[in-house]
Amino acid sequence: MEKINVLGHRLVPRHRILSEDEKKELLARYKITERDLPKILISDPMVKAIGANIGDVLEIERISPTAGISYYYRYVVEDKPTF
């Protein structure tokens, strides 16, 4: 089975890991904690592809013909058993 390169796919938005300073600035700007952000699992293919770790905050850049560029943020969490 051939692996798919998620980093190069045209439908996958750009993801990047925020630095500690960027993370502090983001949380201060919105007066929130990391846990208030939407979550993304450590097992997500894009999280694996960019080498993120549990506790990292990702910035996701989405491009829309109507809204232009929008940024979304996700907090990387561990997988939880679903049984």
Search tags:
83 residues; alpha+beta; globular; Eukaryotic RPB6 RNA polymerase subunit; 2 helices
The string of secondary-structure elements, in order, is: EHEHEE
**How many individual helices?**
2
Give the CATH topology: Eukaryotic RPB6 RNA polymerase subunit
Termini separation: 28 Å
Description:
This protein has 83 residues and is of the alpha+beta class. The chain has a single domain (13-77), classed as RPB5-like RNA polymerase subunit (Eukaryotic RPB6 RNA polymerase subunit). Helices cover 20% and strands 30% of the residues. It contains 2 helices and 4 strands, in the order E-H-E-H-E-E. The protein has helices at residues 20-30, 45-50; strands at residues 14-17, 39-41, 57-64, 68-77. Strands 1-3-4-2 form a 4-stranded mixed sheet. A hairpin with a 3-residue loop joins strand 3 and strand 4. The longest helix is centred in the first third of the chain and has 11 residues, at 20-30. The chain is globular and about 45 Å long. The mean pLDDT is 89.
